[in-house]
Automatic annotation (TrEMBL):
This is Tyrosine-type recombinase/integrase. The keyword Hydrolase does not apply. Residues 218-401 form the Tyr recombinase domain. It comes from Asaia spathodeae. The keyword DNA-binding applies. SUPFAM superfamilies: DNA breaking-rejoining enzymes. Signal peptide: none annotated. Residues 110-195 form the Core-binding (CB) domain. Keywords: Chromosome partition, DNA integration, DNA recombination, DNA-binding. InterPro entries: CB, DNA_brk_join_enz, Integrase-like_cat_sf, Integrase_catalytic, Integrase_recombinase_N, Integrase_SAM-like_N, Tyrosine_recombinase_XerCD.
Amino acid sequence: MSQISISHRDLRPSKDDAPFAEERRRYLDYFAQRGASLVSLRFKRNELIWIATRIHPNAPFSGVGIEELRKIAAERQQVCGGREATQRIIGTGKAWLKFLLWWREPAAVFKYSRQIDEYVRWMRDERGFSLSTIEVWARVIRRFLHWCVQQDLELVTLRAKDMDAYFVSQASGRWSRVSVANISAALRSFIRYAEGRGICAQGLAEAVCAPRLYKQETLPYAPAWSDVQRMLEDVDTDNPQDIRDRAILLLLAVYGMRSGEVAALRLDQIDWAGKVLRLFRLKRRQPQSYPLILSVAEALARYVDTVRPRSSCPEVFLCMQAPIRPFKAGSIYHVANRRFVARGINVAHRGGHALRHACASRLLAEGLSIKEIGDHLGHSSATSTSIYAKVELAALRQIAAFDLGDLP
């Protein structure tokens, strides 16, 4: 008998007369197959029984909405006490009902959801934007359109003064000049798209102004290499989370990988026998092969062999708690940021990109050319790499001895 069947035999009470038994069993099977613990499944089972005995028998046809679920949760809170009981019932109930396609969305749906979905498809299918760009720009557009709704502004009647008002009200004291420029680019692209479909006034895109940015006006925000080494020493433990984080940090610091590239890394891209790491660089949109450095190979092997959850997912890095699913780029950022905070390293940015900058600065200190550094980082042009040439030479001399293979 399979492990899942055994777990569910242990889960089921001797007699289960609650409604929707088959629907509850399928949902618990789904989580069991993704590595949920027996304790977690028991909690879900009890919450599902509570919900199933209180929703309308016609739920498969009429659906269940948030108000009905809140009443069920409030009843549970009266019995168990505490806000946690309410949150668990709502969270479990909503997930279960969505799994069954019984969830009834609130009547008030965001009015521009369709336009955002169509724009995302256009960016992906027509323009071929990278996934990371699509995610960021979609978030910028959604935030802007929510502001329009709050201000009672219609997309079709937007004027230049409205665009100015958005930046004045939102950017002041919060966005840097670079952020303003990036947000302007995203909005200008969306407005041009909307103009072409007749859903906003012609010429409005030209009214989206951005501050002028000068080449190499900002310095790299790399942490000192000694700080990177201390971060790697901190995660050189037997703790499962540290084992995973060490593999991630080494990929960021040694190969200068972007967070999205680490999240997308698959098991079949690691050639253990040939000692080759095959990456797909997001900006170049083409594969690159690198020597699999010993310290990185050992960290990856230790993670895969001892910590990585069992899963059919091809991605290397997976969530360690159910439901088991691949990491997203944001998860990689949080891994790096958590280590910066733990070490008290004070830099402008504390995500994975800071370690990418550290990699570039280290290579520059070792005397590699801009072209060589750009190739290593997967840059599409030397312009993207030239920023690293501005690091103070005196600081570079302090970190002269460099060997990627000697990382702790």
